[in-house]
Amino acid sequence: MSGAPVSWTVARLLEWSTGHFSSKGIESARLEAEVLLSAALGVRRIDLYVRHDQMVDEAGRGRFREMVRKRQDGAPTAHIVGKKEFYSLDFAVTGATLIPRPDTELLVDEAIKIAKGQPELLIADIGTGSGCVALAIASRLPKAKLVAIDISPEALTVARENAARLNLAGRVEFRLGDLLAPLGDMRPDLIVSNPPYIPSQDIASLEAGVRDHEPRLALDGGADGFRIIERLALGAQGALAPGGTLAFEIGAGQEAGARQLLERLGFVVEKVLKDGGGHPRVVRCKPC
Questions:
Q1: What was the pLDDT predicted at 116?
Q2: Is there a domain that residue 104 lies in?
Q3: Domain around 176
Q4: Same structural domain for residues 51 and 97?
Q5: Which candidate in 92, 172, 235, 260 could, as Cys together with 180 as Cys, close a disulfide (CB 3.0–4.6 Å)?
Q6: String of b and e for 153-163 (b: at least 16 CB within 10 Å)?
Q7: pLDDT of residue 43
Q8: CA 146, CA 197: separation in Å to the nearest integer?
Q9: Claim to verify: residue 274 and residue 165 sit in the same structural domain
Q10: Are residues 108 and 243 in the same domain?
Q11: For position 208, what pLDDT does the model report?
Q12: Which stretches of the chain drop beneath a pLDDT of 50?
């Protein structure tokens, strides 16, 4: 944004930043540019199209330049703007939480399907992070009771703030602790989780925005990627109400390993849901 005088309209800024991001190998360059520019100008993304020919003043351009610099240096867009949309809800995110991703919406979809016909389920979200899964479920199942657990006090602070912002604070009980231990005597009908499932040796090869900016605690699944999943399943056997269901997210290429683990532990795999890219993503199972 330097050199000969240029009329820096919204359209021109989007064109420049999209090309710049593409040249840096950033995926979804146009979307990233729109999210950052709308945040810099304090408007909704859709408003950018209404204001296509509007000139952007130096203050607005300065804010946008700084955001573009941070993004090209590897900071995730969600951290730069401080929020991420998930299940049509805006969630605040920080370096203490995973950034919500579209693939995880499958987990919410499945929870809603499981609750069909039995709306007053007790649902536990293990490793809640920003609270996106529990709060998205709560927004669609008004009679369900939810408890959300995380081992990170910092993550729970973000989750509680999101609950308050979304007017769902009275719908979800947040508890601090390791996996299912904070449930105590509670016997949930459904346990959902997006657990750490990336093998430890693969962390270093992750995209820099994930590796350097998201909490390793929420990523590292141990040597084979199944260390936390195995503990989750073992705990679910004793914690679930009779006939209860466990549903959790896995990584690409982990379906066979997940099936073998669950069968060894005495679970019946009811279904494995595929994400938009055709990869196995959510496992639904029950103890035998």
A1: 86
A2: yes
A3: 85-287
A4: no
A5: 235
A6: eebbebbebbb
A7: 94
A8: 24
A9: yes
A10: yes
A11: 83
A12: none
| Per-residue model confidence (pLDDT) at position 5 | 60
50-59: long-range contacts at Cβ-Cβ below 8 A with a sequence spacing of 24 or more?
A: 51/10, 52/9, 52/10, 52/11, 53/9, 53/10, 53/11, 54/9, 54/10, 55/7, 55/8, 55/9, 56/8, 56/9, 56/10, 56/13
Nearest to 94 by CA among 130, 148, 68, 125: 130
> How many domains does the chain contain in total?
2
What local confidence, expressed as pLDDT, does residue 226 receive? 97
* HEC letters along the chain: CCCCCCCCEHHHHHHHHHHHHHHCCCCCHHHHHHHHHHHHHCCCHHHHHHCCCCECCHHHHHHHHHHHHHHHCCCCHHHHHCEEEECCEEEECCCCCCCCCHHHHHHHHHHHHHHCCCCCCEEEEECCCCCHHHHHHHHHCCCCEEEEEECCHHHHHHHHHHHHHCCCCCCEEEEECCCCHHHCCCCCCEEEECCCCECHHHHHHCCHHHHCCCCHHHCECCCCCCHHHHHHHHHHHHHCCCCCEEEEECCCCCHHHHHHHHHHHCEEEEEEEECCCCCEEEEEEEEC
Per-residue pLDDT at 27: 86
For residue 8, what are its two tokens? 């820096």
Tell me: the pLDDT tens digits for 153-201?
A: 999 999 999 999 999 999 999 999 999 999 999 999 999 999 999 999 9
Please tell me the pTM assigned to this model: 0.90
Query: Do 169 and 222 lie in a common domain?
Result: yes
